[in-house]
């Protein structure tokens, strides 16, 4: 399991590379909404869950995929980028898991991510 308490784990920028890497994990009625990549790791938002990808080892051939279903989210918060601070953040609180934090660089569609999560949490 990924150590989400390690603050340096994610510094994400929009990238389609990880949407291709998780295709085999998706259900028949599941599709990728957006994906982000850091230096080696990534996160994919689907219409059903968040998939965090942790690349391990020197060669990067070993990967840990953590599935975080929207149905287990009890609360979340977003911090959008500002004029001088271009980073944004997403904190998601899961029942039985606790807080998961993602940090994004550059212009990230935080409002769209918030709407995606709210669409599942507030049903």
From TrEMBL:
Residues 14-121 form the Bacterial Pleckstrin homology domain. It holds the Pfam family bPH_1. It comes from the Bacteria. This is Cytoplasmic protein.
């Amino acid at each position: 399991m990924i150590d989400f308490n390690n603050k340096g784990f994610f510094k994400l920028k929009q990238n389609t590379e990880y949407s291709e890497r998780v295709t085999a994990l998706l259900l028949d009625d599941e599709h990728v909404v957006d994906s982000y990549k850091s230096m080696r790791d990534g996160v994919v938002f689907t219409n059903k869950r968040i998939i965090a990808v942790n690349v391990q080892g020197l060669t990067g051939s070993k990967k840990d995929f953590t599935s975080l279903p929207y149905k287990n989210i009890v609360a979340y918060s977003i911090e959008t980028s500002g004029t001088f601070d271009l980073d944004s953040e997403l904190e998601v609180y899961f029942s039985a898991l606790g807080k998961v934090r993602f940090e994004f660089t550059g212009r990230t569609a935080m409002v769209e991510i918030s709407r995606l999560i709210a669409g599942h949490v507030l049903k």
